[in-house]
Amino acid sequence: MSGSILVISYVLVAVFLVGFVVRSVRLATMPVHLRWELAPIPHEKGKGHYGGSYLEELDWWTKPREKSLVAEAKYMLLEIVFLKAVWEHNRRLWWFSFPFHFGLYLLVTAAAVMVIAAIGSVTGVAMATAPSVRMVCTIIAAGGYALGAIGAVGLLVKRAMDPRLRGFTSPAAVWNLVLLLGVFATGLGAVAGTAYFGNVTAYVGALLTANAGAPIPAMTTAHVGLTLLFLAYLPFTKMMHFVAKYFTYHEVRWNDEPMTAGSPMEREVQELLAQPVSWAGPHIHADGKKNWVDLATEEVGK
Amino acid sequence: MSATVRVKDISKRAGEVLSPVELQDLVPLPPPYDRLEDQPTWKELSASAKQDTACTLDGVVASSLPTPKNAVEEQEYVDKFVDGLRKSFEKNNNWTFLQPLTLSLEYCVKCQTCSDACPIFVGSGGNDIYRPTYRSEVWRRLVAKYVKPGGKFFARFTEGDIDLNWTAITRLYELSYRCTLCRRCAQACPIGIDNGLITHELRKVFSQELGWAPRELHEKGTVLQLEVGSSTGMNPVVVKDNIEFIDEDTSEQTGVTVTSPWDKEGADVLLIHNAGEILSWPENPAAFAIILNAAGIEWTLASNEIGYDGVNYGLFYDDVQLARIALKHVQTAKKLKVKKIVMGECGHQHKAMMTIADRILVGDMRIPRESCLPLLEDIVFSGKIAFDPSKNDFPVTLHDPCNIVRNLGIVEPQRRILRYLCPQFREMAPHGIDNYCCGGGSGFAVMSGNNFADWRVSVAGRIKFKQILEAFGDQPGPEVKKYLCAPCSNCKGQFRDMLQYYGALEKSGITYGGLVELIVNAMVDVKEPFIKWEMH
Question: Choosing among A24, A168, A245, A302, which should be mutated to test the B contact, i.e. which has the most B CBs within 10 A?
Fold first, then answer.
């Protein structure tokens, strides 16, 4: 590893962290919106399985809300791990989308183990990683690269050949898949060499200790470098949908929280209702000064 | 089917129809509706309508548009549209849906998983412009190119190429009225992207910034409602007269004395109907009155403000109009000091008042609001009314209004009633939260100008009609009378037009109506059959 590669690696990690946090925080801090829930809402205890909600109850506001977080977790698990919606509604795509995503999950798992091992190694907290862990982690990574590569190639072919997808595929979408395919291919190359686990943990260790002199094989450098480049690019793409998905489900589809007196939500909405409106439609009567309350309560059409 | 339509084509070939609807492409219907030559022909567009650039989307016209005098005026509208796009992402102007809109616009990976969930796309035989992602993608590319910094250069790489011109915005405006906002596509999306929401937001840009909205929803809808009290045009005097007439007529026909109380202070229930029921389906408010009186419920109707019409078309196209009407409803309830508002059989009223308006009702504007369906279930199973289910011994199927079922999760109360009172009740496939829209959702049921009614019935409602026929497939002939239960005014409006269009009463013996009519028909105390086997 050279000094310049070390510096570039730091920059890429920093860009990833800042981009990831900024984009996630931006989504998390958006103002409360009007209710837009959509059945099924799995946390509705005893009702979620058929799509029912608490609004089925007579005088629902007098009854305690019963939620099942287990049902919600089960729903999300099937959706995230197995891409249930794609399986049910777009089977032709699932055969490539599933291995692509599952490959990524395997790689995240392997990466987490290797980062922990590297931290343990440089801090001296952990003992040397057991050979069996190294072997299992390498196999997981190899599986991840292989599945990811199969999925990426399949998705590229689908996007090129399937008329349903071709017209909606942007250059960026193609580039995203090509970049990831590069990550998977170099990963396979790194796994095919010797001491994959040790080389990657050594790279991470070099970053942790700012050791530009650490001996890292060229293939590992190419692979980890490309992975870091991908990570730095990730927050600025649609591939952040794994973060967005939390909000589309929990903050939109499943957010059936009714307004209650004195709640933080009520205070926030009161502030939002005081915002000036500047829509130009003639029936709105906005002038950039009147707020939502002014416009909604004025006598119109009389 | 015409050739594949690309997203960027929306702004090209001005004056040509971008993707015409061809009847031979539509999904086939079962016999006796399978012969193209037997199906009604579509209304011919007038010469003046054909001159209208807005008919260049698919040859259908949902709404008229201003006609710019020259290119400069066209550009002014285009610029205003860009202003509207920008305001959609401003917290002060669009906090109401900023987060859902941002999520759906920025994170769709365009996998088309949603396409086959859309009854309009499928019913059309796969017309590209009806794909749930098509209009969303147009908007997404326009935002990327014309709103985001550096978009003129970067957008072609990040999202894809597109141009904005008068042709594009007029087609896009029409296209925003080719989706019923049923949100079946959103249910199918693995990421949670909501193309129905994007359509909703697009309609808002046209209305709130350019002042463009279909006449039936705006001038004759929310504006009329705010002016006189109801989108039907009925003022308080007329509505009271009509209800009095309905009460008298129903008393005479059923032998049960029917009285509807007005403006009773402190009542347990303020019942708000879709006022369209009073004019088009008077048996529905009559049935409610019979049931509530028989159950001893302390209830009232309201004659002030717009408290006698639960319609709120603002839900479909304009947040400000939505808020104005919702607040009037609540003010009415507050004035009467009722304990709760109960929605009549109207789907969009349920959604507008129970969930969408929920978070703008702050401080003393809060009042409990619930669906009529749990209340009816409670009454039916309370033992207060004697029923004879054999009086309903005919095939019955249930339509699930999207706004009540998919959007609010009110699935079972109506089913428990039907399983108890209708021995031949059968479900459609699919049903419940997986139902198909009637094709009249999002205001379509009241939109019939030019050739839009033909499109609404034969394209938007096609999958639903097929589903109804299949539900009664074991007894397809007209000799067996069948009842399509649709507890929603707008759905009933669509079914009236659909069943008449195909002659389904004569050919298949299918009529339609609400839930309360079936309940009253099964009441022991109501001696004469309440359901009339006629098209109304």
Answer: A168
- Round to whole Å and give the CA distance between B535 and B12: 45
Q: How far is B151 from chain A (nearest CA, A)?
A: 14
SS3 of B122, please?
A: helix
Q: What is the pLDDT of residues A143-170, one digit of tens each?
A: 999 999 999 999 999 999 999 999 999 9
Q: Does residue B526 lie within any of the structural domains?
A: no
Domain of B278, in residue numbers: 219-377
Distance from CA of A68 to the nearest CA of B (A): 16
pLDDT for B213-272, tens place per residue? 999 999 999 999 999 999 999 999 999 999 999 999 999 999 999 999 999 999 999 999
Interchain proximity A281–B208, CB inside 8 Å: yes
**Which pTM does this prediction carry?**
0.96
Number of domains in chain B: 3
Both B252 and B201 in one domain: the answer is no
pLDDT of A2 reads 86
Per the rule left: phi > 0, alpha: psi between -120 and 50, beta: everything else, B489 is alpha
Strands across the sheet containing B299-300: B299-300, B269-272, B340-343, B369-371
Q: Which of B186, B171, B213, B200 is nearest to B94 (CA)?
A: B200
| Boundary of a domain, candidates B322, B349, B377 | B377
CB pair distance less than 8 Å for B211 and A266 = no
Q: ipTM > 0.85?
A: yes
CA distance linking residue B89 with residue A133, whole number of Å: 49
Q: Taking CB atoms and an 8 Å cutoff, what residues of chain B touch A46? A: none
| CB contact (8 A) between residue A172 and residue B355 | no
Architecture of domain A89-237: Up-down Bundle (1.20)
- Verify that B163 and B186 share a domain, yes or no: yes
Q: Which amino acid is at A210?
A: A
Same domain for B513 and B405:
yes
- Which residue, B210, B244, B273, sits at the end of a domain? B210
In a domain, B199, yes or no: yes
Q: To the nearest whole percent, how much of chain A has pLDDT over 70?
A: 98
Residue reference for tokens 């072919």: A157
Give the model's pLDDT for residue A147.
98
Q: B312: which residues sit within 8 A by CB, 6+ positions away? A: B222, B322, B325, B326, B329, B348, B349, B352, B353
Where in chain A are the domains? 89-237, 264-297
Of B95, B102, B409, the CB nearest to A41: B409
- In this structure, the answer to whether residues B67 and B196 fall within a common structural domain is yes
Task: Report the alpha-carbon angle B214-B216-B221, nearest 5.
Answer: 115
Task: Measure CA A175 to chain center.
Answer: 18
pLDDT attached to residue A127:
58
Q: Which of B403, B416, B418 is nearest to B488 (CA)?
A: B403
CA distance B252 to chain A (A): 33
